[in-house]
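Design a sequence for this backbone.
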């Protein structure tokens, strides 16, 4: 009986590994997106996202994302069935205290003491999808409106937007054209691209619409996080 009992944990481990690998490799099923396979793609994307969400989580950052989304609330309109978050956000730690000078001057953050990549998690009634570079490329080719080679290259051509594809995709996720053509925002706003962790809180820049970003400081007092708006940047 003992050998059989020992086999059970091994089989469960192999099953888990197989599921994780298939979730990560789901894009192999979709060399291109079409109207015919879009629904299946969204379902597989969500399946992969459910697995990804459990990796590299940080309770500290979970609270931060919750507070930032609540702070902006209805000011950011996110259409579509799903919310979309970046697959990974880099958190850089510094041994300094935040001051207003850091908003306008670069290179004065102090000594960098660490850097980690975390998976942003947001409690929501809507299902969450995670966007990475490979998925972005697939969506770009489906929607069009992007450059055929390097961004704004003299040898690059701006592809025509496929309006039918754009309408179909917007049923599922927010799709916002950037102020400067040739780029799409697929993530739900506010978008947090990176976070600087300092001794007295967190500094980050968040994208709030197609042409505006806000610099904010999240002050940590005890177990509380208080958001302070600093300045806006316009594209």
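Sequence:
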């Amino acid at each position: 009986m003992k050998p059989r009992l020992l086999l059970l944990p091994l089989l469960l481990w192999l099953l888990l590994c197989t599921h994780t690998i298939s979730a990560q490799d789901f894009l192999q099923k979709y060399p291109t997106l079409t109207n015919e396979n879009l629904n299946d793609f969204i379902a597989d994307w969500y399946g992969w996202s459910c697995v990804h969400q459990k990796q590299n989580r940080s309770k500290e950052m979970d609270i931060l994302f919750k507070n930032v989304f609540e702070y902006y609330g209805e000011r950011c309109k996110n259409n579509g069935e799903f919310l979309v978050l970046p697959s990974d956000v880099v958190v850089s730690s510094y041994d300094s205290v935040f001051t207003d000078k850091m908003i306008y001057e670069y290179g004065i953050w102090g000594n960098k003491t660490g850097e980690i990549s975390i998976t942003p998690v947001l409690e929501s009634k809507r299902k969450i999808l995670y966007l990475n570079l490979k998925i972005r490329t697939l969506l770009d080719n489906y929607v069009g409106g992007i450059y055929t080679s390097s961004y704004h290259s003299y040898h690059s051509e701006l592809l025509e937007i496929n309006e039918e594809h754009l309408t179909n995709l917007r049923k599922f996720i927010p799709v916002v054209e950037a102020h400067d053509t040739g780029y799409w925002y697929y993530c739900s706003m506010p978008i947090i691209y990176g976070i600087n962790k300092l001794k007295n809180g967190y500094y980050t820049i968040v994208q709030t619409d197609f042409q505006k970003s806000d610099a904010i400081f999240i002050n940590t007092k005890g177990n509380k996080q208080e958001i302070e708006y600093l300045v806006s940047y316009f594209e």
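Residues 49 and 129 are 5 Å apart (CA to CA).
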